[in-house]
Amino acid sequence: MRLHRLVLTAFGPFGTTTEVDFDALSSAGIFLLHGPTGAGKTSVLDAVCYALYGAVPGARQSPGASLRSDHADPATPTEVLLELTAGGRRLEITRAPAQTRPKKKGDGYTTEKAQSRLRAYDPEKGWQALSKSHQEIGEEITQLLGMSRDQFCQVVLLPQGDFARFLRADAEARGKLLGRLFDTRRFAAVEERLAELRRTAESRVRAGDERVLATAQRLAQAAGSAAETPLPTAQPGEPGLSEGVLGWAAIARTGARERLDIARVAADAAEERRTAARVALDEERELARLQQRFAETERRASALEDGRAERDRCEERLARSRKAELIVPALELRDAAEREAVAAGAARDRFRTRLPAELADATAAHLAELERRYRQELGGLDAARRAETRSAAIDAERAALDGESAQDDETVLEADAWLAGWERTRTALLAEVEAAREAATRTEQLAARLASARHRLDAARRRDALARDIDGARQELTAARESALAAHERWLGLRERRLRDIAAELAAGLAAGEPCAVCGSAEHPAPARAGDGHVDRATEEAALTAHRAAEQARVRADQALGLLAERHTTARAEAAAGGTADAAAAAAGAATGDPSAAELAAHVVELTREHGDAHRLAAGTHRARENLAAAEREHQERLDQRRHAERRAAVRVSRREDLDREQQALEAELSGVREVPGTIADHADRLARRADLLAEAADAVRAEQSAAERRKEADGRLADAAFRAGFDTPQAAVATLLDRAAQRQLQNRIDVWQAESATVADRLAEEDAREAAAREGASPDRARERYDRAEALLRDASAAHSAARERRTELDRLSHEAVREVRVLGPLRAEYERVARLAALAAGTSADNERKMRLESYVLAARLEQVAAAATVRLQRMSAGRYTLVHSDARTGGRRSGLGLHVVDAWTGRERDTATLSGGETFFASLALALGLADVVTDEAGGTRLDTLFIDEGFGSLDEQTLDEVLDVLDALRERDRSVGIVSHVADLRRRIPAQLEVVKGRQGSTVRHRLG
Fold it and tell me: How far apart are CA 510 and CA 508, in angstroms?
């Protein structure tokens, strides 16, 4: 890799565009990069790193740090351009960080995203664009250079202070640096992977042991108090746990089987005792039952004997009642005849009161004769009565026809009067409908104009409010600009004062025996002193923070003013706009410029009034149409009414003529029967009532005579039936009669006595009951107690047997489960032991790893050995063959071995630690180490050639002879067509190295000057 040209614009301390010509500087082989403290020497190296990797070195990539120059004009964008050759290709890389810039239109600032561009040079076509993607450019550069940003910063930008610390660092610090450079993360990943596999296998073995132990706990719980020995005390992961659990389970199963046999024998004995007690209990219960049955039978026999007299009386009474039942039919017939006679006499008495006095004692024949006469007279009046009824109906129909005629005449007159004004009414209704339709059209037009006017009124109000806000925003922007300018001037002043006394500030950090950060010397004969009014770093940074805060406030105020201006312009345009729907308002606005809010408000009020009036008139459109439709329906109804009335009048004339002819015929028929009082119908009704009364009276007289004859006949039959039944009189027979319920009650009592007598006789004849009665009294309660005790003993024995059987079954099942868990655990334990050995070996904790070196440390030790060998070649030349760097894998104290670094002094023949080197010796040893590391990393990166190197500081600690030797070594690099840039403040180097790049600082930013001879 060779650098050709670097162009910095508004980057770091460089406020304008600055170009560095590396081709001119590299022509001398060695060139010097120098300048005052804070001028920007390191910023040149930062720009190279930023162009290649899009970021500055890690030590200066602090959060929130900006790459943009504070000296740059706001319109000048920050940009870095680097032209280089890498992998045989001429490339140009341009990068710009994210930054703010003024807006192209309007006021304020906008933020631009970071940009990257990569171009390649073609001898025939010139520069050709390759990519604008950050990711693609980063991948391309990393592939061409073969190293990461950290490796580049260590190999190309050789930081001597870092390597001096590397010489004095312990093994852990060296391991971190070497790990970043040689990317040994894969070996560390192997260690982590083995450790993870070990932890996983260990957790699986522990989980298996926990399952075995859980099964053992369940075995102990199942064995209960019968367990003869305690469970094994081994914990999960300890050896011997599985074997102890299996042995304990075998002992527990043997004990459970023995207890099961004992419980089975005890349960069988308890079952036999319970059976014998049950038989004894049943026998005692049977004896007690028979004795109780015989005693009860004797009591029932005594009770039957005591009730014998009562039973005889009931049997006799029931026999007499059944004899008296023979007269019941005759008695019922006599009672019926009596009731019939009484009813007939009452009916005869009722008709006597309704007949004339001369007919009160008339016979039935006489009454029937009078009825016949009335019936004959009534038959002669039927035809006259029908004629009289029809004549009255005709008179009623004539009256109805006269009423209908008057009603139809009134309907025709009313219809004629309404139809006479129909045309005038219809014209008025049509006019009302048309007026409502026109009002609806005008309402829509006024609504559009009103909406436009209201929108303009709102815009005018916003315009006026925004105008007031703009005045306030302009005042705020003016104040912010003044504040930002004052803060900027204050910061620049403080910065200039601090830079004048920067030597004193650096001297304050010097310590006896410690190298200077500028020249690298450990001796400090005359450190600078701070003068009056010295400005420290904190004061400058506070001023810078205040300046940035003020600038941000100015930007925010400027952006706020621009936003208000845009909104004011929009509101003004909306308030001044007027379409065809609001031509009057637009004309008024054009005459006076921007229309005021008051004018627009008055116009909105006027349009609102007109729109309300039109809307109220348009709202009657539906009502007007409904009125017109109703009037047209009524017109048709009036026409139909008049036509129907005329048709009904013609029908009535014809009907009235027919009724007149029928009335004349009826008058002629009634002329012969007009001598009867009242109407013929009334006279006929009187004759019919008289005939009906005479017929009913004749029937009542005949019924009374028949009832008296039947009663006399029934009395004779009753007396004859009583005599045949054995009674002297009918009254004596009636006295002994019982109803059906009383007879059933007596019969039931007799049946019960008979059944009880038969039952008692059968039970007295039972042989076993008599024998039981002769024995001693039974004791079933004592037998029950003996049985209950035997039953309780059997339950206890059965429960013990069931528990022993379940315990034996559960122990067998859990033992099989434990065996299965142990079998599954075997391969897991073997895998754990294998992985644990590998992990311990890679982690350096295994006894097989004699030097206790981790795998990553082992790889880094090999790399460090290569670096020491490469560094020794230059170190021997720089030290005139005195010093040699060697790698040591010996352990120091209790730490692990592998990354020790010693120096062999050829003058003494002793090997000692690199921390014992002096300041100058440390410098050229670290320089040799840096160059050796660069060679090894280059080879690791695939042999990528590094034609440009930078060495940062440390030359001030060398004497003249050593400095000459170091420069000779660096000059040897030039022989390999390399160029070396030395960054240093040492004045003697300016005399020794003619090619120089000087960085000059000033109030407007830093610049560079090339000195080539």
Answer: 6
- Region label for 108, one of left (φ > 0), alpha (ψ between -120 and 50) or beta (otherwise): left
Lowest mean pLDDT among 57-66, 119-128, 816-825: 57-66
What letters, b where the CB count within 10 A reaches 16 and e where it falls short, cover 671-688? eebeeeeeebeebbeebe
Strand 115-122 and strand 126-131: the pairing is: antiparallel
pLDDT confidence of residue 81: 95
Q: Which of 2, 1, 6 lies closest to 997 in space, CA to CA?
A: 6
Alpha-carbon dihedral angle through residues 908, 910, 916, 920, given to the nearest 10 degrees: 40
Give backbone dihedrals phi and psi of 184, rounded to 5 degrees, phi first.
Answer: -95, 25
Structure tokens belonging to residue 415: 């219809």
Strand, coil or helix: 127: strand
Residue 271: both structure tokens together: 């079952």
Please name the helix (run of DSSP H) or strand (run of DSSP E) that holds residue 411, with its range, or none: helix 382-420
Identity of the amino acid at 619: A
Q: Which residues are registered as beta bridge partners of 3?
A: 84
pLDDT(688) > 70: yes
The C-alpha atoms of residue 216 and residue 218 are separated, in whole angstroms, by 5
Residue 854 gets which letter from DSSP? -
593: left (phi over 0), alpha (psi -120 to 50) or beta: left
Q: What is the pLDDT of residues 768-793, one digit of tens each?
A: 777 777 777 778 788 888 888 888 88
Q: SS3 letters for 556-599? A: HHHHHHHHHHHHHHHHHHHHHCCCHHHHHHHHHHHHHCCCCHHH
Q: How far apart, in Å, do the first and last CA atoms of the chain sit?
A: 25
From the list 209, 223, 228, 205, the residue with the least C-alpha distance to 814 is 223
Could you give the angle at the alpha carbon of 185 between the alpha carbons of 181 and 191, nearest 5°? Answer: 140
pLDDT at 899 over 60: yes
pLDDT-derived band of residue 582, with 50, 70 and 90 as boundaries? low
pTM for the model stands at: 0.40
String of DSSP letters for 706-741:
HHHHHHHHHHHHHHHHHHHTT-SSHHHHHHH---HH
Residue 904 three-state SS: strand
**Residue 246 CB partners (closer than 8 Å, separation 6+):** 815, 818, 819, 822
Show contacts of 287-292: CB within 8 Å, 24+ apart.
287/772, 287/775, 287/778, 288/778, 288/780, 290/768, 290/769, 290/772, 290/773, 291/769, 291/772, 291/773, 291/775, 291/777, 291/778
Distance CA 600, CA 607 (A): 11
Alpha helices for 619-679 (secondary structure H): 621-670
DSSP state for residue 755 in the 8-state scheme: H
Burial code (b: 16+ CB inside 10 Å, e: under 16) for 609-645 equals eebeebbebbebbeebeebbeeeeeebeebeebbeeb
Task: Supply the DSSP symbol for 75.
Answer: T
Residue 287 in this model has a pLDDT that exceeds 70: yes
Instruction: Measure the CA–CA gap between 665 and 378, rounded to whole angstroms.
Output: 23
Which residue in 876, 886, 991 sits closest to 924, CA to CA? 876
| 534 three-class SS | coil
| b/e burial code for range 100-112 (CB count within 10 A of at least 16 → b) | eeeeeeebbbeee
> Are the beta carbons of 68 and 26 closer than 8 angstroms?
no
- DSSP state, residue 238: S
C-alpha span between 488 and 496 (Å, rounded): 12
Two tokens, residue 956: 């001030």
C-alpha to C-alpha distance for 811 and 822, rounded to whole angstroms: 16
| DSSP-derived secondary structure for 788-852 | HHHHHHHHHHHHHHHHHHHHHHHHHHHHHHHHHHHHHHHHHHHHHHHHHHHHHHHHT-STT-TT-
Q: What percent of the chain has pLDDT over 90?
A: 4
> Which residues have a Cβ under 8 Å from the Cβ of 231 and sit 6 or more positions away?
216, 217, 219, 220, 245, 248
